[in-house]
């Protein structure tokens, strides 16, 4: 079961770190795009919305799945601890507690990835809404939620 601990440490936690880096990179890229977007270059509301929301779904995917991946690591770590306990002749509370504490680190990392991703997604989505409203205001068009004129 030692391979399971290695998989949690390097596989799952490594994957969570990769997800964090990807979502951060996309968030920075989107922020820079929003800073330099020229609303007058867009004649159609839907084209602007597609441009502004590009790749935001990836940040939302990271935000919603990171806690589950962390929880998977915790469950696997607890399974490894119980397996080790079952094979040992004596139950050493120190080893059990250390195993359980190490198992919980996967959940902690999952939450450390998810919380900033959710925050970043919400901030970027707010910026998208503001830019869309500014475009509508400048183009003096009343549009419904489907982008059709009222």
Return the string of H and E elements: HHHH
Could you report the average pLDDT, rounded to the nearest whole number?
A: 90
Strand count: 0
Provide a count of the helices.
Answer: 4
Rg to the nearest angstrom?
A: 23 Å
Structural class call reads: mainly alpha
Low-confidence stretches: none
The 3D shape can be described as rod-shaped
Distance between the termini: 63 Å
Our estimate of the beta-strand percent is under 5%
Approximately how much helix is present in the residues? over 70%
Biggest sheet architecture: none
Task: Briefly characterize the structure.
Helix content is about 80%, strand content about 0%. The chain has helices at about 1-35, 45-55, 55-85, 95-140.
Could you walk me through the main structural features you see in this protein, from its secondary elements to its overall organization?
The protein starts with a helix and ends in an 11-residue tail after the last helix. It has 4 helices and no strands. The radius of gyration is 23 Å and the shape is rod-shaped. The protein is mostly helical and about 150 residues long.
Mind sketching the topology for me?
Blueprint: H1 2-36, H2 45-53, H3 56-87, H4 93-139
Helix pairs in contact: 1-3, 1-4, 2-4, 3-4
Task: Tag the structure with descriptive keywords.
single chain, 150 residues, mainly alpha, 4 helices, 82% helix
């Amino acid at each position: 079961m030692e391979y399971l601990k290695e998989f949690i440490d390097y596989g799952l936690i490594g994957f969570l770190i990769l997800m964090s880096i990807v979502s951060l990179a996309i968030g920075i890229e989107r922020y820079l795009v929003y800073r330099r977007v020229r609303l007058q270059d867009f004649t159609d509301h839907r084209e602007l919305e597609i441009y502004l929301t590009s790749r935001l779904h990836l940040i939302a995917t990271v935000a919603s799945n990171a806690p589950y991946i962390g929880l998977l690591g915790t469950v696997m770590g607890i399974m490894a601890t119980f397996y080790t306990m079952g094979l040992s002749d004596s139950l050493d509370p120190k080893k059990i507690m250390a195993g359980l504490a190490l198992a919980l680190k996967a959940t902690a990392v999952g939450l450390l990835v998810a919380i900033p991703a959710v925050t970043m997604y919400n901030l970027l989505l707010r910026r998208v809404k503001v830019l869309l409203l500014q475009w509508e205001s400048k183009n003096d068009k009343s549009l419904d939620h489907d982008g059709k004129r009222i």
